[in-house]
Amino acid sequence: MASSSTHANEPVLRVQGLSKTLGGVRLFEDVSLTLNSGQSLAVVGESGSGKSTLLHLMAGLDQPDQGTVQWHGQQLAKLTQAKLAALRIAHVGLVFQAYYLMPHLNALQNVELPFLLAGKQPEAKRALALLNMVGMAHKAHAFPRELSGGEQQRVAIARALALRPPLILADEPTGNLDEDNAEKVLQVLLNACSQEGSSLVMVTHSTHAAGALAQQLRLAQHHLSVGR
Questions:
Q1: What does the pLDDT read at residue 7?
Q2: What is the pLDDT of residues 188-205, one digit of tens each?
Q3: Tens digits of residue pLDDT in 34-81
Q4: I need a labelling partner for 219 at 20 to 30 A (CA). Which of 53, 90, 171, 227 fits?
Q5: Phi and psi dihedrals of 175, rounded to 5?
Q6: Which of 186, 208, 184, 188 shows the shortest CA–CA distance to 196?
Q7: Residue 158 is assigned to a structural domain of this protein
Q8: pLDDT for residue 14 is more than 60
Q9: Quick check: is 141 in a domain?
Q10: Strand, coil or helix: 132
Q11: How far apart are CA 112 and CA 107, in angstroms?
């Protein structure tokens, strides 16, 4: 659901002065950005530029060397691991290049999984509606091994939206797909976020994919800058 009135005027995501070095290699420094409700943003960068690491920092899955990440005004570094994990489930939906569907669960059960992780009763009606939104209702009872890559990514998008998170973070969501499927999945992602009212950050090496989002930033030479 949307944030409480306490944080109603706060950005969905605020990144300030982030720097990160990994294995002795400086990835980026002094990265800042703000994402408001309903906005979409693409971060473009070559392989090794640090864009996936930046997304992990935005998701609270890793910690920066310097700088802060805030979700609706809450600074992640000030939260306990338990509170951060609970807030992440409610605030962030994650879409990865590798899909990460649970192989022993069918499509419907995969979309219901976030409810269980949040300690809630699964909402089959909500899950089925999301599968329908991404064009996968007819495959609700199919297992990941029975689905194509594009179909698995559509299910992953539905799963990311299950708890109505204000923020969707997508890491190369079309990277494993052929050109035709990549275009279709990208449009499914954008349409689904729009219908659900979720803000979107997508990191990608594809300038074509980035061009479909409202804003584009480029991560290069250790810095983030405006540009296509």
A1: 58
A2: 999 999 999 999 999 999
A3: 999 999 999 999 888 999 999 999 999 999 999 999 999 999 999 999
A4: 90
A5: -65, -30
A6: 188
A7: yes
A8: yes
A9: yes
A10: helix
A11: 9
Chain center to CA of 102: 18
pTM: 0.93
154-to-86, 181, 186 alpha-carbon distances in Å = 25, 10, 9
The answer to whether residue 227 scores a pLDDT higher than 80 is no
Could you give the CA distance from residue 90 to residue 154 in angstroms, rounded to a whole number? 20
**217 within domain boundaries:** yes
| Cα–Cα dist 75/67, whole Å | 10
| Closest of 214, 196, 195, 193 to residue 43, by C-alpha | 214
Domain count, the chain: 1
d(CA 128, CA 125) in angstroms, rounded, equals: 5
Range of the domain at 111: 37-58+80-226
Placement of tokens 């809630």 in the chain: 120
Give the amino acid at 55. Answer: L
The CATH number given to whatever domain includes residue 113 is 3.40.50.300
